[in-house]
Amino acid sequence: MTIEVRDGVTVIDGRPQVLVTADYPYYRDDPAVWADRLRAMRDELGIEVITSYIPWRHHQPEPDAAPDFTGRTHASRDVVGFIELCHRLGLKLVAKPGPFIHAEVTYGGLPDWVCPSSDPSIEPLLDAAGEASLWSDGANRAGRPLPAPFGPVFSAKVTEWLSAVGKLVLDGTTHPDGPVILMQIANEGIYTNGARALSAYDYSASGLAFFRDRLRAWYGTLEEYDRVHATTSGGWDEIEPPRSWTGADTPERMRAYADWGRFHADYTAEVYRRWADAVGCSVPTVVNLNPPTVEELDDWLARVRPEIWQDVAYGFTNWMGVVSTDPDSQARYVIAAKRAPGPNLEENWGFSVLYDQAYSDATTSYHQTLLALAAGATGFNVYTGAGTSGWLPDLDTAHTPPYPDCAPIAADGSATEKAPVVRVLADFLALHGEEFLECGPVTGGAFGLYSPYAGIAAWAGPGQDGIPRCGGALRDFHDRMREAGLDYAILDLETVTAERLAAHASVTVPGGPFLHRHVQDLLAGYAASGGRLVLDGPAPRLDEDLRPYTVLADALGSAGGTGSGPVPGDAPEDAPAARVVSGHADAFLRAHPSRDVQYLTVLVQSDNDGPVRVQTPHGVVELLSAQGGAAVVRLAGGALDDFVVKGLNGFLDSAVPARIAMNDAESHADRPADLARVGGTLRLL
């Protein structure tokens, strides 16, 4: 009776499963309806795992009182009872104790008494200008300073809170004796700042102390630091981080910017480690990263290094726009899903007023859920599964009930038109999820990330001559691959193995002045073994310590690099495994390593009109879907098997009788409707 996260996949009692979850903020609802809402999510949505934050400010509003986890001060604080209720109803739980949660809760869920403006002994988080990083609860509301995570006073208070959750809430409630299967720490970085610029934090005294400690660990001696940076330093405490881009015309001057990016990666990892250790939970720990913004892609790539998180598993969220209409949102979403294997822990299934009216219909969320799974996610979340309407005023004064406005289960407990869509997808994955995870994406190439270049480019911005690229090169690569109809992988060059490189016929990497020795050796070996290596930029002639090393340049010879932009010999020369031959859509294919089974995902764009035809290795799949719709199809033995096809999109006023055909097999609705076959049984939704 075990639970683990294995390569991003949740494995319960030895069985890998697609992690299908729905969020329910118990703290926003009357405890009298908890059981009804949980049953509705279980029975109407097919949900077996609930996720929920545990807001610090809700359970401990006063600093001198112990946290209330049993409802002694208010019934809605009885999280122990809530967890017991989940267990009685046969539901599992992902517990999320913060300490910062966002979730539209006042001050991000932090109690007012840890705010630096309320307690001057608490160190504020500072940006590059020395100004406090502020958190605002909504439009036209003045922000309040956030505490520095490593500040001693705040750190002690966080440890007390998380330890209390671990001992008083989670001990005895974890798998296999209880329902808690995972514990999520933090939120979207630390303070929903995982996608912010590297200059946004942490220039507090405690943050800079950690930075200088890391410099000592990386360089060993001050003499070595000065050699690499071409500086003369009087001591570690005199070394200042960059605060703005002042130019860097040599590798030595670039290193200070790369150092600050590396600091952010180590800083994030250390916060996660400390907070997870404070909880002391016996089940695996996960985090949920927000996807990168367009402008801060390099900042995100420098900071987000799941490879160094040790026992903390990767997960991500989506709050960035409608991917079926916006190429930027689609790229950000795919990159987040491909950065590392892990579940989508927050997909917007209920917020149209707060985000975009397109989410009033289930089609937008369904499309994005399938995109995440096709791009590499190992699970999806319905955020939130049920609407709520009974929270205490101090918990959220910026929003009015119901929260959210259009959940699959309404605030009165009734199932909405979104419920059958969630249910059929949950049923499809309950039946086929383990096999889906066994199937690997059929890719046309891979992109290799080199985080030091991301750290430099994050400061330099686009269009800087002589500055290495990472995020910009990745986005260009993504656009080329999408245009060619090819799927791809993202590899971290500092930790990738020769075996993982060899799995790809083509690997594109950013070029620049230096590259780790072992990375140069790996890439040179990959090219020598027949792999197609594409260098987007100049070939490196130095190693990570800025000592001469030309193994990669020598291996590539005169073809050692090109400028930015489309790269000759790049993966788009390959033929797609699943190619859209008519209609405006994207197609992804996953194939089983030992059985003749594939999973085809077709994502129809909002401007598509008419059927979409996709060429697969077994023939053409033709489907008729609503605009902005999507389909997931199991192909077995070269024939159609189970599928889910979206025929309705009320937001776009698009309604068709969903249809799917391949070779001589066809299924269609007899009226405008969604169409599914699960376990061989047809359903109209």
TrEMBL record:
<feature type="domain" description="GLMA-like second">
    <location>
        <begin position="474"/>
        <end position="558"/>
    </location>
</feature>
<dbReference type="Pfam" id="PF01301">
    <property type="entry name" value="Glyco_hydro_35"/>
</dbReference>
<dbReference type="GO" id="GO:0005975">
    <property type="term" value="P:carbohydrate metabolic process"/>
</dbReference>
<dbReference type="InterPro" id="IPR031330">
    <property type="entry name" value="Gly_Hdrlase_35_cat"/>
</dbReference>
<protein>
    <recommendedName>
        <fullName>Beta-galactosidase</fullName>
    </recommendedName>
</protein>
<dbReference type="InterPro" id="IPR029062">
    <property type="entry name" value="Class_I_gatase-like"/>
</dbReference>
<dbReference type="InterPro" id="IPR054746">
    <property type="entry name" value="GLMA-like_second"/>
</dbReference>
<dbReference type="GO" id="GO:0004553">
    <property type="term" value="F:hydrolase activity, hydrolyzing O-glycosyl compounds"/>
</dbReference>
<comment type="similarity">
    <text>Belongs to the glycosyl hydrolase 35 family.</text>
</comment>
<dbReference type="InterPro" id="IPR001944">
    <property type="entry name" value="Glycoside_Hdrlase_35"/>
</dbReference>
<dbReference type="Pfam" id="PF22369">
    <property type="entry name" value="GLMA_2nd"/>
</dbReference>
<feature type="domain" description="Glycoside hydrolase 35 catalytic">
    <location>
        <begin position="11"/>
        <end position="115"/>
    </location>
</feature>
<dbReference type="InterPro" id="IPR017853">
    <property type="entry name" value="GH"/>
</dbReference>
